[in-house]
Amino acid sequence: xxxxxxxxxxxxxxxxxxxxxxxxxxxxxxxxxxxxxxxxxxxxxxxxxxxxxxxxxxxxxxxxxxxxxxxxxxxxxxxxxxxxxxxxxxxxxxxxxxxxxxxxxxxxxxxxxxxxxxxxxxxxxxxxxxxxxxxxxxxxxxxxxxxxxxxxxxxxxxxxxxxxxxxxxxxxxxxxxxxxxxxxx
Length: 185
Fold this sequence. Notes:
It catalyses: a CDP-1,2-diacyl-sn-glycerol + sn-glycerol 3-phosphate = a 1,2-diacyl-sn-glycero-3-phospho-(1'-sn-glycero-3'-phosphate) + CMP + H(+). Helices cover 81% and strands 0% of the residues. It contains 7 helices and no strands. The chain starts with a helix and ends with a helix.
């Protein structure tokens, strides 16, 4: 168990606390939890690289913690009417699609290498910025109007582009020579 893995686990434990804070209307607390979780994500990655504490567990645990945090905040903000429902659905559906594709390829005996695509990193960044902006608006009683609207559109476009990119990558992988259909065939 490495320090980065412990930080990722702490991020997972922050998810239900953040959901409670949002449901209870404690937007300032939810904002702080979200920001601290985001900083911890950068810190655990830096520690893992700098102190050679990268692990197979961390390879899976870190993105799971990220996805849990983002899914929770988008669903919560959607239910509370702070984000459009369609965006929360798009964000969560993309993650379900990606995880399902990886699991299906694994179950079929043709596992994919876990490697984030550039568009996926851009999507995650946009989702984090949007969530922090909306949480900040709620916490500090401000309305950024057009800025938030632009972030909504950019986040939706990147989310859909990322889902399509992963789907195409998965289809190429599954159709590649030696793939499951050819081996079981």
